[in-house]
Amino acid sequence: MKRYIPALALAASVFAAPFANAAGDYPNHPVRWIVPFTPGGAMDNIARTLSEAMTVSLGQSFIVENRPGAGGNIGASYVARSPADGYTIMIVANGMAVNPYLYKSLNYDPVKDFAPISLLAVVPNVLVTNPKVNHTRTVADVTAQAKAEPGKHTFASAGMGTSIHLAGELFVKMTGISMVHVPYKGSAPAMVDLLGGQVDYMFDSITSSKPHIDSGELIPIAVTTSKRSVALPNVPTVAEAGVPGYVLTPWFAAFAPAGTPPDVVAKLNKAMVDAMKTPKVQATLSSIGAEPIGGTSDELRGFLATEMRSGKELIESRGIRIE
């Protein structure tokens, strides 16, 4: 994905230019940016970082509002029902693509009820373990351990259907091992138990795991993305480390309610893409392990469709369901 960054940014500016004037005086009052999860995570950090930059560039406040719950569904449902005027937007993650297959019923449609604005960033997940209680250091060690003791070892997640959970499920599927998934209500309590030795592994976000890696409390084994993370350049990808074809990319993107005028979407797109080029935003994103992407709204639409297909395949093959 990173190799497309220059082309996507250029495409976004070309796409937005013809519509800039058509948006009139938008925005002429504050814009609410809904984060469908609790404060403090990568998603919240990205929204707040971009909101600050867009407040400056567009001359109106972009106010982050957290509406957590139900794997992001509460916030998504709220935005889907909001006026399509550009004054309510949302940041989403992989859940936008997989929730339709995880939940028996949703009161929104991720394709029909939203207008794509832009891909924003990737924040790789990293397979970590506690060196005080676990002596594995490589992917080969992990798989050998799990095969020697099927069903004995555990991996924690921030909850069913999160990228942290699905990264583990994909790993189990592709390696043919047996491990027990232990879901928590958020990354923080899962991390507490990982550090305490109650669980063995976690495919955690670099944002929350890197401070513990830096302190030596956790050992990084491999990252889940197709390329190494700029935040952990010496840590191999899972594919490099012995599971060819493995890739799970935790991504973040922005959407508005369906029916939002294309000129308004284009203005938001340009502001986001331009913000991600600034040194201040890039430095802030880098500090949490986020790698900016950008791109046009049409590219995000196509990307979402691809992610929905791959997410559906994994969820159905692993029999994952949230009641």
Structural notes for this entry:
The chain has about 325 residues and is an alpha/beta fold. The chain folds into 2 domains: about 1-125 and about 250-320, Bordetella uptake gene, domain 1 (D-Maltodextrin-Binding Protein, domain 2, 3-Layer(aba) Sandwich), CATH 3.40.190; about 125-225, 3-Layer(aba) Sandwich (D-Maltodextrin-Binding Protein, domain 2). Helix content is about 40%, strand content about 15%. It contains 11 helices and 11 strands. It has helices at about 5-15, 40-60, 75-80, 95-100, 140-150, 165-175, 185-195, 205-215, 260-275, 280-285, 295-320; strands at about 30-35, 60-65, 90, 115-120, 125-130, 155, 180-185, 200-205, 220-225, 250-255, 290. A 6-stranded mixed sheet has the order 2-1-3-10-4-11, sandwiched between helices.
Question: How is this fold's topology laid out?
Answer:
Layout: H1 5-16, E1 31-35, H2 42-58, E2 62-66, H3 73-80, E3 88-92, H4 95-102, E4 114-122, E5 125-129, H5 139-148, E6 154-157, H6 163-175, E7 180-183, H7 187-196, E8 201-205, H8 206-215, E9 219-223, E10 251-257, H9 262-275, H10 279-287, E11 291-292, H11 297-318
Parallel strand pairs: 1-2, 1-3, 6-7, 6-8
Antiparallel strand pairs: 3-10, 4-10, 4-11, 5-8, 5-9
